[in-house]
Amino acid sequence: MLPMDIAALTIDKVREGLRARRFSSSELATAALQFARAENPKTNAYLTFSEERALAAARRVDEKLARGEDPGPLAGVPIAVKDVIVTNGVRTTCGSKLLANYVPPYDATAVERLEGAGGVIIGKTNCDEFAMGSSNENSAFGPVRNPHALDRVPGGSSGGSAAAVAQGTAVVALGSDTGGSIRQPASFCGVVGVTPTYGRVSRYGLTAFASSLDHIGPFGRNVRDAALVLSVMAGRDPLDSTSAEAPVPDYLTHLDGQVKGLKLGLPREYLKNLTSESGDLIFKAIERLKKLGCEVGDISLPATDYAIACYYVIATAEASSNLARYDGVRYTFRSPSSETPSEMYRNTRGEGFGAECKRRIMLGTYVLSAGYYDAYYLKAQKVRALIARDFTNAFAEVDAIVAPVSPFPAFKIGEKINDPMAMYLSDIYTITGDLAGIPCMSVPCGKTVEGLPVGLQILAKHFDEACMFRLADAFERAGGAQN
Amino acid sequence: MKITVDQVRYVADLANLHLTEDEVRKFQADLDEILVHFERLNEVDTSQTEPMAQVLYEAEEIATLRPDRPRPGLGTELALANAPVAGSGYFKVPEVIKR
In what order do the strands lie in the sheet with A295-299? Predict the structure, then answer.
């Protein structure tokens, strides 16, 4: 038994432990893998454990330490990676039957950078198929259960990553966010989840869902850990032409508690459909921010009412195009009953994709088809410009925006799965940030009477993650997660 | 009604997606409800708005291309490693032209 409580580790505690030689990186990796395997039957958070790779990474850290070299800012930190992010030699399923045996021949840039900084990737986490869903119930490998209430969903689509961090089997995790898939599960599982500015983190190696909306971002048990992971991953990558050249600040130096006088906007359109308990916690959080010296005022983001329609036109259109590559030729699964190429395409896709992917392929194909392109896709792209303009206007007046993440806390497994429209509508507070490409995050702001976590969303200007982290960190240190 | 079962079959055909009859009926209802919701986009006046295909920043952070220099690709063996059927350095598919 190791002298550590794995479930309570933070990046700082790992660093201290290694420095004081209380444990080696290899010992920690072995213990973390053992703990994650033992806990997994409760939540189904992991689909694959990357033991060989984890132990090799840990050994490299130990060797560097022995030679007196700097092992990197994430040295020895056990990390879980959402299974839509490719890992060389480690199975990457995207939560789909189609890719149940897919072993990528290369690493995502984000993964490469985390390992380069000493991180130890212990496994790949469960998610909605191709990141399409808000509950993690659309995985071909079974739903993930919320560690706070095992009969409830962890949120989605990055449900496994959020659950792993909440459960303590990984110190930090990577997720992906196209319409709220990091922030909503972070909120449901009571952890910190960050969607950076579009282009901040390279998408190279992130399986494409909706390319103009896809982001990679971190989960952590505190703001500091999430900020550090982002700073390691962020920055220009020649392999993603949309990755930004903008310099990446040292976010940790911004966690200084200096939030007095910060101007915050509370969008009135985001308070309409809240359940009373979630609403109470959001308003309590606002009061806490005021006590810290922030000035909170009402703002309006008038195009919000059109955001769901706008998002589901654009996201499904892009998805129908991106998922065209799963045709039975290159990616492991081919329907056995295919005599002709046409049958191969149709049957492979018909048998391979789950219901939600099919629904989105159908919607996306429909809105892009002859005669409908202008009415749906082009129109939605124009409405997207208006949604983005709302934020530009708001940020002329305020430094950051505070809002709920989800209208309600974690719901019961099975409760909403048969009503796709209701599921789509629940994304209302998170999709706008993705459409505008601004950085946004969820930070825990208390629990309901039943003990279900609720998250506060913070949104900031393009490339101003530093302001967002400063506010979230000050809120967290002021006891924001306590009721 | 925004979409009929025949249109659902037509779209599935465009998407190269085999659907069972049960799925066709289910998706007709689902898609209809969602397309009715999409209608609200028509309430927005966009006559003066340019479409936004990509997040556009006012700064030039993303106006960057890497130098166009050749670099080694994956190689045939790795590229074919995940193929359901491969042979002689190619992806194999069912017969395309009947002899």
Answer: A46-49, A120-125, A78-82, A172-177, A215-220, A192-195, A440-447, A453-460, A400-404, A263-267, A295-299
Mark yes or no for CB contact B11/A105 under 8 Å. Answer: no
Given a contact cutoff of 8 angstroms between Cβ atoms, the answer to whether A456 and A184 are in contact is: no
First to last CA, chain B: 46
A118 inside domain: yes
Whether A456 and A409 have beta carbons less than 8 Å apart is answered as no
Q: What is the pLDDT of residues A79-116, one digit of tens each?
A: 999 999 999 999 999 999 999 999 999 999 999 999 99
Q: What is the DSSP letter of A67?
A: T
Annotated catalytic residue, options A25, A82, A135, A187: A82
| Rg, C-alpha atoms of chain A | 21
- Is residue A158 annotated as part of the catalytic site, yes or no? no
What is the average per-residue pLDDT within B70-93? 94
Query: In chain B, at which residue ranges do the beta strands (DSSP E only) sit?
Result: 86-87, 90-91
Domain total of chain B = 1
Q: Which domain holds residue B12?
A: 1-45
- In the chain, the amino acid numbered A226 is A
Give the residue from A90, A321, A382 with the most B CB atoms within 10 Å of its CB, the best one to mutate. Answer: A382
Instruction: Give the domain CATH number at B6.
Output: 1.10.20.60
Cβ neighbours, 10 Å, residue A226:
30
The complex scores an ipTM of: 0.94
- Looking at the domain assignment, is residue B1 inside a domain? yes
Cβ contact B81–A312 (<8 Å): no
B13-44 pLDDT, tens per residue? Answer: 999 999 999 999 999 999 999 999 999 999 99
CATH number at residue A176: 3.90.1300.10
The partner residue sitting opposite A236, judged by closest CB among B11, B33, B64, is: B64
